[in-house]
Amino acid sequence: DLSVGQLRFLLAHSNSLKSACVPHLKPRQNFGISPPTPSWTQSLSSKTVALLFSKRSTRTRVSSETAVSLLGGRALFLGRDDIQLGVNESLQDTATIISSMTEGIFARVGDHSEIEEMAKYSSVPVINALSSLWHPLQTVADLLTLHEHAKLFEEGASASQKTEHLPLRPLTISYIGDSTNVLHDMLVTFPRLGHKMRVGTPPAAAYQCPEPVWNRVKELGCDKNIWWGSDPQDALRGADVVITDTWISMGQEAEKAQRLRDFQGYQVTEALCREGGANPNWKFLHCLPRKQYEVDDEVFYGPRSLVFPEGENRKWTTMAVFDALFGGWHIPSLAGTS
Ligand code: CP
Ligand code: NVA
Fold first, then answer.
1. Lowest mean pLDDT, pick from 34-48, 185-199, 238-252
2. DSSP label of 56
3. Which of 54, 136, 248, 332 has the fewest CB atoms below 10 angstroms from its CB?
């Protein structure tokens, strides 16, 4: 729902929060020099944010709890066994009550309709922490990571010859694997920022883009910059960045055997990317958690992999989004959604 201008604004804010907080949190990196006075505002001071998680989480939970804490607020973690929701109480009543006592709701749900319903009945902002269709904050973290590593994508010069703050050039971003919530937010975001996407998913109907997502992709004009096929090697042609997600998303565990058969040939490896014609300098992203059958250890733990900075950036980007939507920090209404 954010315009390109608003996204860029959030990325810049994430970057400045990270620059302000990291030296403060890790003063040993200052070699004995006192940490600077924190320059971010305590915008959640005296405020409570409800974190409703109906599914497991490591990154989304830790990033959101720590982000609220750094903004001076209190995070109230509400797991599926903690509250009446789904057993004794409806979503409508839950959203009405929780929003009457808190300043924001961050919710990880099953079906996407659940987050829509929560937003309908909540009197405070509701942010999607992952639903069946979308995982918006993951894409913001991925974008920050690509921008931070912009120099790695410049040809003809080593990383050390580059200045730290290069603009990110238009990239070819290849995603192979399942059409997941993580991919869907990339589809509506990367093309609007000038990047091309190449997607490779197995041919069965279950692995194609869901209609509501593709409708939004077309509405935003992103489809013009997306190639989609079923051959992973075709999808990797010219890739500057290679991305995959889990082949078995939370809730699909019963389909494991079938999925492992259907995804044969989609494991990200050096050989597959070379044979597919990826840019020799390609880099790798994965939202995590990761299984070895999706990407081998050589890639995952090798020099191409940006997965751990990507994981950490969940915190700084979430902090910027919370500051804006729960803390009252203002996102200017820059242009439309294009
Ligand atoms: N990437 C991500 O959302 O990870 P978690 O499921 O651990 O939160
Ligand atoms: N597609 C995965 C993402 C996990 C972060 C899932 O929904 O389980």
1. 34-48
2. -
3. 332
For residue 191, the one-letter residue type is: P
What tens digit of pLDDT does each residue of 231-240 get?
999 999 999 9
Overall pTM surpassing 0.90 (yes/no) = yes
The answer to whether residues 195 and 213 belong to one domain is yes
Among the listed residues 221, 245, 6, 277, the one whose alpha carbon sits nearest the alpha carbon of residue 134: 245
| Nearest atom within ligand 1 for CA of residue 287 | 1
Check if 60 has its Cβ closer than 6 Å to any atom of ligand 1.
yes
What span, in angstroms and rounded, lies between the C-alpha atoms of 223 and 197?
9
Q: Is the peptide bond before 289 cis (omega within 30 degrees of 0)?
A: yes
Residue nearest to atom 2 of ligand 2 (CA): 249
Question: Is residue 25 pLDDT above 80, yes or no?
Answer: no
Q: Are residues 10 and 26 in the same domain?
A: yes
Strand-pair partners of 226 = 197
Q: Is 273 a catalytic residue?
A: no
Closest atom of ligand 2 relative to the 130 alpha carbon: 7
- Answer yes or no: do 36 and 182 share one domain: no
Ligand 1 pocket: which of 130, 134, 139 to mutate (most atoms within 8 A of CB): 130
Q: Are residues 189 and 295 in the same domain?
A: yes
Q: Output the domain CATH number for residue 24.
A: 3.40.50.1370
- Domain check: are 290 and 159 in the same one? yes
Which of the following is catalytic: 21, 209, 273, 287? 287
**Where on the phi/psi map is residue 237: left (φ > 0), alpha (ψ -120 to 50), or beta?**
beta
Q: Are residues 119 and 157 in the same domain?
A: no
Strand partners, 89: 85
Name the residue range of residue 120's domain. 4-133+315-321
Asked whether residue 157 falls in the same domain as residue 273, the answer is: yes
CB 287 less than 6 A from any atom of ligand 1: yes
Taking the CA of residue 249 as reference, the ligand 2 atom at the shortest distance is 8
When divided into structural domains, the chain yields a total of 2
Q: What is the mean pLDDT of the chain?
A: 92
